[in-house]
Amino acid sequence: MKKRMILTLCGATALSLAACGGKTADTTTAAPAAETTAAAAGETLTGSAEGFGGEVTVTLTSADGKITDCKISGDKETADIGIKAFAELEKQVVAAGGPEIDGVSGATVTSNAVKKAVASAMGVEAAEEEIKATLIETAAPAALVQIDGGIQLGQVYAAAHGTSCFTEAVAAVQDDVIIAAYIDEFQFLDKGADIVGVPNSDADFGAGYVEGKVLASKRDNAAYYSKMMTEKGGATVTIDANYDAIQSFVVGKTIAEVEAAAGKSDVIDAVSGATLTDTAGYLTAIVDAAKAAKDTQAVEFAGDSSALKLNVAYAAAHGTKCFTTAAALTDGENVLLSYIDDFQFISSDAAVTGVPNSTEKFGENVAEGNVLCSKRVNTEYYSKNMAEKGGSTIAIDKNFDAIQNHIDGMSIADVTALAGEASPVDAISGATLVDAAGYLNAVLDAAKN
User: Fold this and answer.
1) Of 219, 262, 266, 215, nearest in space to 241 by CA
2) Distances from the Cα of 159 to the Cα of 18, 235, 440, angstroms
3) Quick check: 299 and 150 in contact, CB under 8 A?
4) In the predicted model, what is the mean pLDDT of residues 418-425?
5) pLDDT recorded at residue 78
6) Of 97, 29, 30, whose CA–CA distance to 60 is shortest?
7) What is the model's pLDDT at position 2?
8) CA 241/CA 89 separation, integer angstroms
9) The three-state (H, E, C) secondary structure of 416-448, written as one string
10) Helices 379-390 + 396-407 axis angle, to 10
């Protein structure tokens, strides 16, 4: 299928990295004859400083008062950013003969750690400097190109059902008609052998839970959650079957028709197979997702929309501190449209927006001092963090968009091949995420299931 997407181009501003100021005073004195030979043979000096992920250590070899070699270690730094910069930083230290190096663009925190470690090894003070990593100012979004019969994909988070969970709703539209929908919810459940937590629940992400709880998808735990519904409320229809019934109800209806249905008092009676008292809340979430889709670029589609399939998958696409939600609309052979986002715990002291119900019962199960956030919703905060710690120049939402725009319209086979390349990000215009393959595989999981 021929790909017809409009890509947003990013304007560029320079990433400024200031070199350390000041000079080291010359404290060299004439060495006794007995020490001269030892100095000529090489003296070893070691120093450490805190880097991006942990301690960075430099080992210097000096002879006749000059640094002749530098080795840097720090296995907690980011493999494709900080550790990759070690070789260049080692050369800069030797050339400068001390901590006054320029550093490596994109590895600001690691560069500053090396400067401090070198100063520590030499017994001098490193000049303090402000990290001046700045996000590229992105150009205004390109105007949406209208495509007759084109399809679009939208997604939202909502408080569709009570205060103990939050809902994810995805909707695909063609003109004003909803052609596919998907809903799921996330809730904290009691940790146990029968519960499947979201990805990285047993890693760093899980540190954001209160003791004894685990964040879980209701669809992934349909048997457990449905049994609880039966025991506590006498439910006779499983939670996933309820979701499926609501999804089926909206397909083929206009956004206005679904919105009107959500406002009726007897809406449950109208949705065949659904028994959830908050059915109207789920319909409203789908309506909001469908409206959000109208603000996205359409892609051409001339086939039978009833044959399309929309699915969502959860993955550990990027490290262990977050988990990814990825949506894919497919025709069986091609990824027609996709959507990517990450959830991560962020300090509650930061100016961030938590997922729905973060200030309600749902938030009571989050470890003190944290709030669960969508990276897209908090793109300004998270992107600034990326810039300061890793020298990133592309905002997180623009990175996600670039990956989506690249694969929308590609065959599943071609996306699979791209994900298998050594560095797929090199082929994706506008993307800089070193874990691009992880996000591609997340979309593939949604497309193939």
Assistant:
1) 219
2) 46, 21, 29
3) yes
4) 96
5) 73
6) 97
7) 36
8) 57
9) HHHHCCCCHHHHCCCCCCCCHHHHHHHHHHHHH
10) 100
Task: Give the predicted TM-score (pTM) of the model.
Answer: 0.72
Query: Rounded to an integer, what distance in angstroms lies between the CA atom of residue 87 and that of residue 83?
Result: 8
Q: How confident is the model at residue 32 (pLDDT cuts 50, 70, 90)?
A: very low
CB environment 183-209: b (16+ within 10 A), e (fewer): bbbbbbbebeeebebbbbbeeebbebb
| More confident position, 414 or 123 | 414
Across residues 79-83, what is the average pLDDT?
A: 76
> What structural domains does the chain harbor?
41-122 (3.90.1010.20), 151-448 (no CATH)
Query: DSSP characters for 45-83?
Result: EEEEEE-SSSEEEEEEEEETTEEEEEEEE-TTS-TTTTG
What digits encode the pLDDT tens for the residues 390-401? 778 899 999 999
> Which residues are bridge partners to 197 per DSSP?
216
- Token pair 């001339």 in the structure block, residue: 302
Per-residue model confidence (pLDDT) at position 387: 86
Tell me the residue type at 188. F
**In the block, which residue shows the tokens 């070893």?**
44
In order, the DSSP letters of 123-153 are T-PPPP---------PPPPPPPPP-TT-EEE
- Reported as a single tens digit per residue, the pLDDT across 95-108 is 999 999 988 866 77
In whole angstroms, what is the distance from residue 134 CA to residue 108 CA?
11
What is the helix (H) or strand (E) element at residue 21, kind and residue range?
none
Number of helices and strands (H, E) in the chain? Answer: 12, 11
88's enclosing H/E stretch is helix 86-96
The neighbour count for residue 69, using CB atoms within 10 Å, is 14
Helix/strand/coil for 191: coil
Rounded-to-integer distance, Cα 349 and Cα 61, Å: 44
